[in-house]
Amino acid sequence: MLLEFRTRNYKSFKDELVFSMMPAPKQKGLDYSILNEKIGSKTYKGLCSAVIYGPNASGKTNIIGAMDVFKAIVLRGNIRNSDGSETPNAAANILELIPNNKQFRQPVDFAIKFVENNLLFSYELSLDIGDFLETGYSRKILTEVLTINEKMIFSRIESLEFGNLKTIKGFLVNEFEENEAGAITLAKNNLNDEELFLTNGFKAMFSSKIVSIISDWMDNKFMVIYRADAIQVTKRFSDPKKKTVYIEKTVNDAANIFGINSNAVGYMALEDESDMKLCSIFERHKFLPAEVFESYGTIRFINLFPLVLRALLTGGTLVVDEFDASIHPMALISIINIFHNDEINKKNAQLIFDTHNPIFLNSNIFRRDEIKFVERDDTTTDSVHYSLSDFGTSGEKGVRKNEDYLNKYFVSQYGAIKDIDFTPIVEEIVNASEGM
User: Taking the complete model, does pTM exceed 0.85, yes or no?
Assistant: First the structure.
């Protein structure tokens, strides 16, 4: 369960961004949105959903992009560039795209707090990766801190220091106690400026179990989808020579409810490909690639729906850039309601997405602390993030529980909206064409 994500000097976020999934104090209503995880005698609370609003180019996607970059860095264990193409987010592989383009030699910071395996993890990084588009720079990890259950495990600030490792005694490598002094000395003497201590030295000499829990959560449960339109879900096929159509019942049933043009949808290996492609299936064993016959919205839904199921079945956190693009809002409201349903969302799954659709600005759908905004200053071009709950409930700008959020948003009561008028540009072109 994600509790908090922070970053600084990431693209348009020059100052610190704090994206919180913890309930704001004194917020009432929609209590089914509150998730609870008990660790020892303490209970940690999280929100099961969040929706992000803001005009084009405000920085909404940069929040999701920052999560994607941080995840990529942790999983590969270093701050060198990568040739990988696991994500359409170029900054995840080319790190010189990360820094704010007006900053000069300022570090890039990331931090995350989450609950997994009955443990509270907090992990933070501060990176010196040079300026925007500066290639060949000698990169360095300035800060790296791991905290578990609010106890510092290790801290890498100028030098490498350790907390009381008895906090994670049951997770340490075999015979660690007999070799503790040697392991600490070896770790301190073999730090690499570009490599994370967490996924290298700490994993090898201290606790592969702890790193495995963190890595597995990052890889399988922290599902960050940068540009949802780029998702292509395929099925591995053990024998590509077979032309058997594989219809996944759950996906096909959901697609029929959503709306398809064919009799069914399924997966089939075409030609000699080892991956099965999504196909529209008709009577008498006829089929076509789905993109030929189905709507773009239908295909996007089919590609995203398995991720929704995966989040619900594993207790994952699904973060999607423009989840609702080409998908009818009623379909998305149904998915939101599933995450809000305590009887279905039994493993504390979370859904986070950005949108331009104002229909979700409704106190019956989201709590005030679940509604997030991003605004970009016209003068500095820096992005600022805040929640509807930050306005409080009293005073002229206060937001009350049953308020008409949608109308007040469109009269710029909450900011994060921009007046757009193309008339002068079009008028100039029309006038110029008439004078020719």
Answer: yes
